[in-house]
């Protein structure tokens, strides 16, 4: 499992803790958490943590040293803050298990990020990600009202289009970003 960003988010004035979010992600992923005791994955060697570098800057060989990822959770991590979102998504695709791998991206704030496509249309980042043929994707809302993009690899061998960060907008974090598709 690769987790980017903190695991604590607010929804409806209730502070969700790591267990709430991981329970929902694992339910979506088809796993079960033990009712009591430590999280079964956090207590195992199957969880790998990387800190201090952008997700897109960590070599795939280092990330997949022990095998491809079955679960990547991006909760206010690389998707929300990276100036290289196209490279982040390409990295996720490279390290994701072909058969069962899923990426969960919290959609909070992503509706304020925009992409100008090659055709000249401006769409929000969520719509752009959902339109990528490199992933089978869906938008889900959990019982905690957390909207999540769920991505699975598709058969497409085409690279994910490159994006150029044109500017940051004003506002609270994550600040709005404006990208242009260049590839």
Explain how this protein is built:
The protein is α/β, with parallel strands linked by helices. It has one domain: Rossmann fold (3-Layer(aba) Sandwich), CATH 3.40.50. 21% of the residues lie in helices and 26% in strands. The protein contains five helices and eleven strands, in the order E-E-E-H-H-E-H-H-E-E-E-H-E-E-E-E. A five-stranded mixed beta sheet has the order 1-4-5-9-8, covered by helices on one side. Strands 7-6-11-10 form a four-stranded mixed beta sheet. A hairpin with an 8-residue loop joins strand 10 and strand 11. The longest helix has 12 residues, at 18-29. It is globular, with a radius of gyration of 16 Å. 28% of the residues are buried.
How many strand units? 11
What is the element string, with H for helices and E for strands?
EEEHHEHHEEEHEEEE
Radius of gyration: 16 Å
Query: How many distinct helices?
Result: 5
Strand order in space, largest sheet: 1-4-5-9-8
How far do the termini sit from each other?
30 Å
Q: Briefly note the structural class of the backbone.
A: alpha/beta
Main sheet specs:
5 strands, mixed
What is the averaged pLDDT score? Answer: 76
Fill in the CATH topology: Rossmann fold
CATH architecture: 3-Layer(aba) Sandwich
Oligomer: single chain
Q: Give the low-confidence spans.
A: 3-16, 29-44
Query: What gross morphology would you assign?
Result: globular
What top-tier CATH class fits best? Alpha Beta
Overall tally of domains: 1
Percent helix: 10-25%
What portion of the residues fall into strands of 2 or more residues? 25-35%
